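Our preliminary data section would be incomplete without showing what the modeling component actually yields. Below, a chain of 177 amino acids is followed by its predicted structure, encoded as tokens that our downstream tools consume directly.
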Amino acid sequence: MDITSSFCRRLRRLASWPVTHFLIGALIILIDLETGTFLQFPILFVVPVGLCAWFANPPGAYVLSVALPLARVGVVVFVEHPHPVPYALANAAIRMTVLLGLSILIARLARREREIRERLETLVRVCAWSRTVEFEGEWLSFEQYLSRRFGIKTTHGISPAEFEKMMGNSVTSEDST
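Predicted structure:
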């Protein structure tokens, strides 16, 4: 097994847990609190909000979009005191608006990507020459494909167009004799 693909699979699984997004948000708030007024990290709120909107669920991303800027207001008002409260609230409202907009866009993009992936998975590969169908790495006749994939039993008949062709050919061949 490839170590890189295994690592990516584990990272994707970790990123799909909603708790991970809230922990990342809390870590960003703690770093922001620890660094004081000179280094601020609210731009990093995009990371847990985006991960939550893409992998987990949009409502969780919306909660993070509101909770993280409000937590930042708490840091500003109760710890740093550099700005009056109305300015801190105005900054929080701006951040909330931007994060909510991003989470909505990311959630829509994720949903659309999943829809496209599902459509691609439902496409059926048919050989242009033999008219066989690829199913689970094996090339099957159309009848076998219907039976294996959907459990459909088939029977044979003749379409009206082909019947007309046959009857037209048989009438023509009888006339020529």
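Residues 3-120 form one domain. Strands lie at 133-135, 138-140. Preliminary results of this kind motivate Aim 1 of the renewal.
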